[in-house]
Amino acid sequence: MDRLSNANSKDNLTRRIIETKGIVQGVGFRPFVFQIAKRYGLHGWVLNTSGGVLIEVEGAEESLHAFLDDLTMQLPPLAKIDTISVIEAEAAGYQDFKIRQSQAQPGKYVSISPDVGTCADCQRELMDSTDHRYGYPFINCTNCGPRFSIITDIPYDRQFTSMQRFQMCDTCSQEYTDPDDRRFHAQPNACAQCGPQLTFMGGTPLQVINGEAIKLTAQALQEGKILAIKGLGGFHLACSATDETTVAELRRRKHRYGKAMAVMMKDLEQAARYCELSATEEKLLVSPRRPIVILNQRQGTKIASSVTFGLPTLGVMLPYTPLHFLLLDSYREPLVMTSGNISEEPLVSSNEEAIVKLGVIADCFLMHNRDIVNKIDDSVTRIIAGREAVIRRARGYAPEPLLLPEQLPEILGCGPEQKNTFCLTRDYHAFVSQHIGDLDNLPTLEYYERMIDFYKHIFRINPRIVAHDLHPAYLSTHYAQSIGNAQLLGVQHHHAHIVSCMLENGVTDQVIGIAFDGTGYGTDGNLWGGEFLLADYRSFTRLGHFKYVRMPGGEKAIKEPYRMAYGYLYSLFGKDTRTFQKYLDTIEDEELLIMAQQMDKHINAPLTSSCARLFDAVSALINIARIVRYEGEAAVRLESIIDEGVIDFYDFDLQGYILDPAPLLKGVYNDLANNIVPSTIAAKFHNGLIKAISNVCRRISNHTGVKKVCLSGGVFQNAFLLKGLVKRLTKEGFSVFWQQKVPANDGGISLGQVMIAHYNLSR
Ligand SMILES: [Zn+2]
Ligand SMILES: [Zn+2]
Ligand SMILES: [Zn+2]
Question: What class does this enzyme belong to in the EC scheme (predicted)?
Fold first, then answer.
């Protein structure tokens, strides 16, 4: 026995009542507490409450000190303590240390762990032919496995998960109750005898086969079939990533043209064979969050061209469930693993829904009987300027809260229309939801409303303050207006972008906010998107922006950038558009006439200051994206062809704080006429943008004295632009902040909304 734990008489003992909050449930925290209590011979108990974890320990003073040191400094890998309170009390005379039954406390809440990729120990057991769980596709432990995706309520206990229906066998129960076992109180604990099972369905008529499901799946993939595979947060559609015919067929069946699809690689070694990998990227790929990481592809690999449609980047993830490990161990080649949904609908997550909805796409199904309670997409991230920037925040990240710089009341931020997330606050926590999607289709809207209800329930939040976008037609705005008994605040889109960036970077004073994106409703009713704001948490002044131009045909100009290019030329050069005759020749005369009339008469030709539209226009001018299949495609293509060796740039006119791209457009056109290659033009465009933005910043700073700059909005997912701008502004003496924890795109809007609402309504 430890010398500290010599049995003392009760007189020499004291007790500590310890309450911890943070990510302390579903991460092996109670077993950890049990172990260290035992280590120092302390008595008492530990239990999960709906507010966190409550501990009572008693023993000698020295032992209690040692216990508290270990408690805070040797946490299990996935646990995170946000707050801890320790109260001294007289000894109660406990005889042993116990893990007590969880307690639900009305109104209390606790953070819930995101789903966690299979840990190294479980990976080893999975592949060990002598292990009890050899080849079992649902192996997990206190350090890994499903969490958020299977939870129905708090506290996080088996009875409040979709594992509730599986009765543990003797072996599993033994582990679950043995404090020395690494599955002690692992809620989803299971084995082949008692846990979830795989089913393979294939052929016509559909045949159901329970055994050898993995082998049959790998075989079907070899044969060039398309499979629907049930994963952690929903279904994937999977096929060979190296077989062009199959990938093209998947796109045809899914009606998905344009957006790149993600690939699952067997391991780091395989990923490195297909892509360039930095140490940071490697670390991210194998992290417990296991996101899709956007990497640079090596040239001349076997990846089918239809996977990315010619982009030099590739979204790569590694296996993150035991099922994936087994599948890739059997199939061994890169797999396309794209979201199992139709068009823009949410992920399919139940077996029945999969057969109905994915039946027209998939030849075979690999399914299981552990229900997905909360569907959640794969997260997407990219290393930009040396740091991880989340592009789609979902599995592995949500619903982990972001810590706020001050305590907030219960507020709901409804988020935007596209790439929607919502956000709920309580105390120092901001619970930004997982990626919800585009609300303009009914199933996504229903998913949105259901998830808001669920978050409100599990985090015990009942918001009386509701923030929404200023756009009157957004469905998230309508949702906010439908909530009774709440104070509403309309928040300007780009102000929300900037405050989101400030918040996650802990910036509390006034900043120069640069918000560049596709579209956000402006206070003047125009479509903003190239904005220079002087902003804080409460309010903003719009100091500068890109010069307004008209979008002939409105929405249509977004899908057809060649219209946008004409919109720019006509708006900025008027009758002199003729100097761009060669470009005009690429458009039918009648169409030109209609567009000119729309712009003259202001019919369906709204004014915009959007920077994304400038990317569209330039891409159309140089003919790399006359028509796009998804918003932002033109910008992605323009970035992808940059010749990084070019240091030349195009000019903007700067009148006050208004950026006029007329000289730039002339420059692009002249270079085209002189047969300058698109890769040079793309570089000069980006370089010109970086220079122009920093000129505006300098001018604003000279007048205001503000030296902090926040960059947000979807345009800043452009790695070349962000990196170049951060470098240049830093060199000029600015402190530069950008989004990393929440997306720079509209997925970050809801976080900004809640803080602005707090400063205007509840502070
Ligand atoms: Zn594990
Ligand atoms: Zn079992
Ligand atoms: Zn936006």
Answer: ligase
**Per-residue pLDDT, 7:** 46
Is 253 noted as a catalytic residue in this protein? no
Q: What's the maximum distance between 2 C-alpha atoms anywhere in the chain?
A: 99
Q: How many Cβ atoms are within 10 Å of 358's Cβ, its own excluded? A: 22
pLDDT tens digits, one per residue of 29-72: 998 999 999 999 999 999 988 788 999 999 999 999 999 999 99
| Separation of CA 608 and ligand 3 centre (Å) | 13
Peptide bond into 399 cis (omega under 30): yes
Report the pLDDT averaged over residues 75-82: 88
Short-list 458, 394, 606, 585, CA closest to 518: 606
Listed in sequence order, the residues at least 6 apart from 105 whose beta carbon sits closer than 8 Å to its beta carbon are: 49, 50, 51
**Residues paired with residue 16 on neighbouring β-strands, in sequence order:** 57, 88
Q: Which residue in 660, 687, 392 sits closest to 530, CA to CA?
A: 660
Percent of the chain predicted with pLDDT > 70: 98
- Whether residue 110 is predicted with pLDDT greater than 90 in this model: the reply is no
| Residues written for the chain | 763
Contact (CB, 8 A) for 225 and 363: yes
CA of 326 to the centre of ligand 2 (A): 19
Which of 638, 519, 620 lies closest to 565 in space, CA to CA? 620
**Helix 561-573 with 589-601: angle, nearest 10 deg:** 60
What gap in Å lies between CA 150 and CA 113, rounded to an integer?
A: 11
Residue 216: what residue type? Answer: L
- The 10 Å Cβ neighbour count of residue 359 is 13
Torsion of CA 135, 141, 146, 148, to 10 degrees: 180
H runs (alpha helix) in 622-677: 633-640, 662-673
| Cα 190 to ligand 2 centroid, rounded to whole Å | 5
- Structure-token pair, residue 476: 């998230």
Sequence-separated (6 or more) residues with CB below 8 Å from residue 3:
none
User: Does residue 676 contact residue 638 with C-beta atoms inside 8 Å?
Assistant: no
Compute the distance from residue 676 Cα to the ligand 1 centre, in Å: 56
Q: Which two tokens stand for residue 307?
A: 């996977």
Q: For residue 266, how far is its CA from the centre of ligand 2 (angstroms)?
A: 28
Which amino acid type is present at position 437? G
pLDDT over 90 (residue 112): no
**Among the bound ligands, the one closest to the CA of 142:** 1
Q: 8-13 contacts: CB < 8 A, separation 24 or more? A: 8/59, 8/60, 10/91, 10/93, 12/60, 13/58, 13/59, 13/60, 13/91
| 256 catalytically annotated | no
Ligand 2 mean position, distance from CA 175 (Å)? 9
The dihedral region occupied by 641, where left means phi > 0, alpha psi between -120 and 50, and beta the remainder, is alpha
CA-nearest of 396, 414, 712 to 540 is 712
Beta strands in 144-224 (DSSP E): 198-202, 207-209
Give distance in angstroms: CA of 651 to centre of ligand 3: 26
Written as six digits, the tokens of 189 are 């604990």
Query: Averaged over 81-100, what is the pLDDT?
Result: 92
Which listed ligand is nearest to 746 at the C-alpha?
3
Of 15, 16, 48, 687, which is the active-site residue? 48
Question: Per the residue annotation, which of 6, 8, 12, 30 is the catalytic one?
Answer: 30
- How confident is the model at residue 577, as a pLDDT? 92
d(CA 243, CA 530): 41
Distances in Å between the Cα of 371 and the Cα atoms of 145, 151, 252, 374, 424 are 14, 10, 29, 9, 26
The secondary structure of the chain in percent helix, strand, coil, rounded to multiples of 5, reads 35, 25, 40
Quick one: which ligand is closest to 140's CA? 1
Instruction: For the chain, list the domains and their CATH numbers.
Output: 3-99 (3.30.70.100), 198-368 (3.90.870.40), 545-697 (1.10.357.160)
Q: Which ligand has the nearest atom to the CA of 496?
A: 3
